[in-house]
Each structure stands twice: as structure tokens, then as C-alpha cells.
Amino acid sequence: MSNSSLVKFTQALNEEWGVVSSALTLKSKLLLEDLTQTCLNDDWYKDLVKSKSPAKEIYRSEKHGFILMGHVEQNGELSPPHDHGNGWVLYSTVIGQVDMGIYQKIIKTDGSLHLVQKDAYPLKAGQCSVYLQGDIHDTHTVEDNTVMLRLTSCDFNKEVEEGRLVRFIKNVEKW
Ligand SMILES: [Fe+2]
User: Fold this and answer.
1) What is the pTM of this model?
2) What ranges do the domains of the chain cover?
3) What is the C-alpha to C-alpha distance for residues 14 and 123, in angstroms, rounded to an integer?
4) Residue 82 C-alpha to ligand 1 middle, in angstroms?
5) pLDDT values of the chain reduced to their tens digit, one per residue, 175 residues
6) CB within 8 Å of 13: residues ≥ 6 apart
7) Cα of 83 to ligand 1 centre, how many Å?
8) How far does residue 59's CA lie from ligand 1's centre (Å)?
9) Which residues sit opposite 167 in a β-bridge?
10) What's the CA-to-centroid distance between 25 and ligand 1, angstroms?
């Protein structure tokens, strides 16, 4: 059994964890980037790939509440634009590619709310992006068997259940 890269990641993150700050988001990003680049021989990673699971909880910090999720996705899979409620999140790609779209809420002159896209970029193997409270993005997986790791600051199922995490469907202006 070898889970050395995961143990290193979780120990370091539990030690560093606290209220969201620039120092914490940077540290978390560096740690997650390191994990995505060193996890290939870990058993939990091999199990995730083998399972082809669309969403698997890899680790949950009982002390701090952050969660590491693993996702195996296929070409063409989409997650519509959404925020992350009161949480914040890091996305990273281990293998494959996920294209990210970035949006902002705009009130038009007639008073209607629109989501206007302001950026798009690929998240390639080894790369990691941070999305803070209020950030809105979508995801589009563009390679089969893409493996993504997602570190959430809290339980996002609860953010959905309690109505804080919003998915946007109407008036979305995509590039
Ligand atoms: Fe997200």
C-alpha cells in the first residue's frame, strides 16, 4: 500500500488550514499542484482511475471540514455555470484537459440579470485554479478519462441543499 503523496498533502494542509486568505489559497494551490504531479503511483489514485467514478470522496478533514474529491470525466461532459456558495474551491487536472469558462453577473439596463463570460482557459495536466466565494465558472471536459481533483473548503452538498450554491441556466451568454 502506498498513499505517500496523499498523506503528505493532507498533513500539510491540515497544518496550514485556517480562515480563507491569500496565503492559504496560495499554499493550497501549491500543495494540490504537487499532489497532481506526484499521485500517479498512489493506490487511492489507481483505484480512482479504475473505478471511473464521476465523483469520489478521497479525503475529508474531520478537524477543518475541507474535502478532496476525485472525478473521472469523459469528453463532452459539462458542468453549467455555478458559484460555490459560501465555500471556495481548487480544481486541478491530473490527466487530460478541462476547459474553464469564467463569468460575471451583469444587470442590463432593463433590470434583467445576465451572466456574461469574461474568460476561458484550459486546465491541463498538472495545472490548478482557485475559485473564491462569488466566482462563477463552468467546466467542459475535452478528453476521455480526464482525471480531476477538486479541493473544496467545505461540504458543497450542504451548500446546494441549503440554497447557497447557485447554478445559472437562464440568460447565460457564452462565448
Ligand atoms: Fe465549480
Assistant:
1) 0.95
2) 4-173
3) 26
4) 6
5) 689 999 999 999 999 999 999 999 999 999 999 999 999 999 999 999 999 999 999 999 999 999 999 999 999 999 999 999 999 999 999 999 999 999 999 999 999 999 999 999 999 999 999 999 999 999 999 999 999 999 999 999 999 999 999 999 999 999 9
6) 27, 28, 31, 61, 66, 151
7) 6
8) 18
9) 82
10) 15
CA–centroid distance, residue 151 to ligand 1 (Å): 10
Distance 167 CA to ligand 1 centre (A): 10
Q: How far is the CA of 1 from the centre of ligand 1 (A)?
A: 32
Amino acid at 45: Y
Q: How far away, in angstroms, is 139 Cα from ligand 1 center? A: 8
Distance 138 CA to ligand 1 centre (A): 7
Q: What separation in Å is there between the alpha carbon of 2 and the centre of ligand 1?
A: 30
Neighbours of 167 (CB within 10 A): 12
Fold for 4-173, please state it: Jelly Rolls (2.60.120)
CA atoms within 13 A on the CB side of 54: 6
Confidence (pLDDT) at 1: 67
The alpha carbon of 106 and the centre of ligand 1 are apart by a number of angstroms equal to 19
Beta-strand relationship, 56-60 and 97-107: unpaired
Strands 67-73 and 56-60, by their bridges, are antiparallel
